[in-house]
Amino acid sequence: MSAVQLAALARTSEPQTMLRRFLALDAVVTTGNGLAYLAASGPLGRFLGMSQGLLLGLGAFLTLFGAGVGILATRKSPPVLQVRAVIESNVAWAVVSLIALATWLAPTTAGAVWIPLQAVTVGGFAALQYAALRATRT
Questions:
Q1: CA angle at 40 for the pair 25 and 42, rounded to the nearest 5°
Q2: Over 60: is that where the pLDDT of 10 sits?
Q3: Which residue of 2, 27, 45, 124 pairs with 70 in a disulfide if CB–CB is 3.0 to 4.6 A?
Q4: DSSP letter assigned to residue 49
């Protein structure tokens, strides 16, 4: 992704601001997803074809992870090591989601659409964050 495309997405050419905005977007989406899983694990589980317990566990994890990413996004200059941990966690989440779909989950049609969609979204966050992190170093 070019610097111009990245700047257009972030609506700024300041690399630190880009990084913080992409982290904040990740935090909002991740925390929102986690809260939805926590609040509606039963209905969502039936809709997606996943167990209520699995969604409760994922909801708790996502809510805490999203809150941590949100805190990181508030830092004027987010520490590189912590940003890399977020990026690597996002990549792992995307990969594990697809592996789980292929090997052990038996979702409904909605779940079979949702799982790859969220994996691509999380992978996209990782790509944007990685590009912004690289931009801060140049």
A1: 135
A2: no
A3: 27
A4: T
